[in-house]
Amino acid sequence: MGYKKVCFNCRRSFNQGTDFTQMSEKECPVCREMMVHVSHRFRPPKHREIEKWKVAKYLIENGMNYHHVYDKIYSVDGIVCLQGYVNYPENMREAKEFVKKYKGQLDFLNR
């Protein structure tokens, strides 16, 4: 279970592994475009599922790099509680709603 490098130009993904010293910007070995580093939770669509690739690109461009997103975040006695994973959307309409609803969560968790 490692991270992935994704090329949206040729719609391919490559496993990165877990050696964090080797995580650098890399060119796609097929088309030579720069690839994007994403979480191990990213499940690439099939090559022919162009709309799903567009959704994934939109999510990543908006900071949603397939890390865990939670249904609820609340605090109890100063302890942050995370409840219920949210599934990533598969169509553009849901993706836009998803970004609007959960983008602030990433800022909160990355403080």
Distance between the termini: 25 Å
Q: What is the beta-strand fraction?
A: 25-35%
How many E-type strands?
5
Overall pLDDT: 85
Name the strands of the widest sheet in spatial order. Answer: 2-1-3
User: Which segments are poorly predicted (pLDDT under 50) over 5 or more consecutive residues?
Assistant: none
SS class: alpha+beta
- Please tell me what the overall shape is: globular
Count of discrete alpha- or pi-helical segments spanning 4 or more residues? 2
Oligomer classification: single chain
The percent range for helix content is 25-40%
Radius of gyration computed on alpha carbons: 15 Å
What is the element string, with H for helices and E for strands? EEEHEEH
Number of domains: 1
Describe the structure.
With 111 residues, the protein is an alpha+beta fold. The protein has one domain. Helix content is 27%, strand content 25%. The chain contains two helices and five strands; from the N terminus they run βββαββα. The protein has a three-stranded antiparallel beta sheet, with no helix packed on it. It has a two-stranded antiparallel sheet with strand order 4-5. Helix 1 packs parallel to helix 2. The longest helix is centred in the C-terminal third of the chain and has 18 residues. The protein is globular and about 50 Å long. It starts with a strand and ends with a helix.
Q: Helices and strands in order, then pairings?
A:
Blueprint: E1 3-7, E2 12-17, E3 36-38, H1 50-61, E4 70-76, E5 79-85, H2 92-109
Antiparallel strand pairs: 1-2, 1-3, 4-5
Short note summarizing the structure:
With 111 residues, the protein is an alpha+beta fold. Helices cover 27% and strands 25% of the residues.
